[in-house]
Specification:
Strand order of the largest sheet of chain A: 2-3-1-4
Largest interface: A-B, 19 and 25 residues
CATH class of the largest domain in chain B: Alpha Beta
Order of helices and strands of chain B: EEEHEEHEHHHEHEHEE
Oligomer: heterodimer
Shape of chain B: globular
Number of helices of chain B: 7
Strand content of chain B: 25-35%
Number of strands of chain A: 4
Order of helices and strands of chain A: HHEHEHEHEHHHHH
Shape of chain A: elongated
Mean pLDDT of chain A: 81
Number of domains of chain A: 2
Strand order of the largest sheet of chain B: 6-7-8-3-9-10
Radius of gyration of chain A: 31 Å
CATH topology of the largest domain in chain B: Rossmann fold
Mean pLDDT of chain B: 90
Structural class of chain A: alpha+beta
CATH architecture of the largest domain in chain B: 3-Layer(aba) Sandwich
């Protein structure tokens, strides 16, 4: 069994060496198609991380016109904590808000000189449970019944826009990637078909000495799968180099502003998936080519 | 060994390549199929190796009806046949050794057995010193000897040869015929299509003559 497999593998590799230009063309096409898919995957992955970060930090902030006294504050806190959507409620006093703002300004903190702590309002920061995020509007509506809470701010709308952008990115990636993968599939199929036409005499001789259709086809299937596999590896290398040289920098510039500290390359499982996808494209391509040769091989 | 009953083969309507052919070739026999071009010699050989199906009639090989043999059984039938073509049909990218070894690889034989058998058969055809050459590095006669070696390496029950000496000079033709005679002497049934009358006179055997797709004569040696 293993001997047979080695035999077919050797024949497939030898076939590839006999037509190096055609094989290189197939590998290159699969490589380019999958590398483009990988670029989109990297972008989607990092934007997804960003929205996950935002979602975790998403809070409803209620600005208080007048800081309440201790008893009222405690009542509000207990009331809000009892909401099923709420994970945590924090009271930020005017003093604390002033200190935070000062810290955020950093070197420009002297801008606040002469202003007192009472320039900023006190607030309640209400963090929702991640799974309750879509109920933000309901929580806001309930909070707005308490007129003393004043203005209510929340980033839900931004997050939704960002998620729509993510969906768009995914859709474009899938459409473009799908189109390119299809093109790669056709090119692999044509490469194998050209090889088959070039070796028609050989195939005929094989059938005449009693080779079964599978015996004839298997090396070509392996050849297609190997071309796809090598294409997948090329895609991985190209996307890694592009990530190091271009993507990390440019994506970083966009995303670092938004709070993500590092831009990530594809995780190991996705890398494996990319290479496996290459092998699958190659295998399907050669299956497509061999379909038309079935009759010839069996007669 | 081979029996044909009222076999007709039509490639086009009203144009039969073979018409109502009935014949019997016994085990271990050596038979020439002769006749002018288009008489149906090659078609008959193709029917015997299931490269074509008869339009009508039945064909039996070693007692088994192969007329309606399922596609997946055809390779197994061909493993008991040796086939030699006028244009050799060698695999030009492979060495002489690999060409001759190929039918055994197809049968899944072990490497050690393959090496032994291939070397023996190449010695038999006098090409053991050429085993690492490629077909295009050999003369026409040598290439045909490789093709004969490839046909004989599987110890076939039947050897089918379609004008095997058509492109060869008389000396080489004699060499090839000696190889066929040797295989026949070891028990292989040989069916050889040729239109070379002088060859038949030189190596007299039973002759089945075809004309316009019909058996026109059957002459014993």
């Amino acid at each position: 069994m293993i001997g047979q497999l080695v035999y077919f593998l050797r024949r497939a590799l030898r076939n590839m060496l006999y037509s190096p230009v055609l094989s290189a063309a197939s590998i290159f096409t699969v490589g380019v198609a999958l590398a483009l898919l990988a670029f989109f995957a990297i972008a989607v992955l990092n934007v997804q991380r960003l929205t996950a970060n935002w979602a975790a930090e998403l809070a409803v902030v209620a600005y208080l016109e007048q800081p309440p006294d201790g008893t009222v504050l405690n009542r509000w806190l207990n009331e809000i904590r009892a909401y099923p959507e709420v994970a945590e409620v924090t009271y930020v006093s005017r003093q604390e808000a002033y200190q935070r703002f000062k810290k955020r300004l950093g070197n420009d903190a002297d801008l606040l000189e002469g202003l007192g702590a009472d320039v900023l309002p006190a607030s309640l920061e209400i963090r929702l449970r991640p799974e309750q995020r879509e109920n933000t509007a309901a929580v806001v509506e309930r909070l707005s019944r308490n007129k003393a809470l004043g203005e209510l701010h929340y980033g839900q709308e931004w997050l939704e826009r960002f998620e729509a952008f993510l969906l768009l990115l995914r859709t474009i990636g899938a459409a473009l990637g799908g189109f390119l993968v299809l093109a790669a599939l056709v090119i692999v199929a044509n490469t194998i078909k050209l090889t088959l036409y070039a070796r028609q005499d050989e195939l005929e001789a094989m059938t005449m000495v009693g080779a079964t259709a599978l015996f004839i086809k298997l090396p070509y299937l392996i050849e297609g799968a190997l071309q796809g596999l090598f294409g997948g590896i090329v895609a991985l290398l190209v996307s890694f180099v592009a990530f190091r040289v271009v993507l990390r920098e440019s994506l970083g510039n966009i995303l670092l502003l938004t709070g993500i500290d590092t831009i990530q390359f594809l995780p190991l499982a996705w890398q494996g998936l990319l290479v496996a996808a290459g092998a699958l494209v190659g295998l399907l391509g050669s299956l497509l080519a061999l379909r038309k040769f079935v009759r010839f091989c069996q007669d | 060994m081979i029996q044909l009953f009222n076999v007709t083969k039509a490639f086009q309507r009203d144009q039969n390549a073979l018409s109502d052919v009935t014949l019997r070739v016994a085990k271990g026999e050596f038979v020439y199929l002769t006749g002018p071009s288009g008489a149906g010699k090659s078609t008959l050989l193709k029917l015997i190796c299931c490269a074509e199906r008869p339009t009508r009639g039945q064909i039996l090989m070693d007692g088994r009806n192969i007329t309606q043999l399922g596609i997946r059984y055809i390779p197994h039938l061909r493993r008991n046949l040796g086939i030699v073509f006028q244009d050799f049909k060698l695999l030009n990218r492979r060495t002489v050794f690999e060409n001759v070894a190929f039918p055994l690889e197809v049968q899944g034989r072990r490497r050690i057995e393959i090496s032994k058998k291939v070397y023996n058969v190449l010695r038999q055809v006098g090409l053991e010193h050429r085993l690492s050459h490629h077909p295009l590095q050999l003369s026409g006669g040598e290439q045909q000897r490789v093709a004969v070696a490839r046909a004989l390496v599987v110890d076939p029950l039947v050897l089918l040869a379609d004008e095997p000496t058509g492109n060869l000079d008389p000396d080489v033709t004699t060499d090839i015929m000696e190889l066929f005679k040797g295989a026949n002497a070891r028990g292989t049934t040989v069916v050889m299509a040729t239109h070379d009358r002088s060859l038949i006179r030189q190596f007299p055997r039973r002759v089945i003559s075809l004309e316009a797709g019909r058996v026109a004569g059957d002459t014993p040696p």
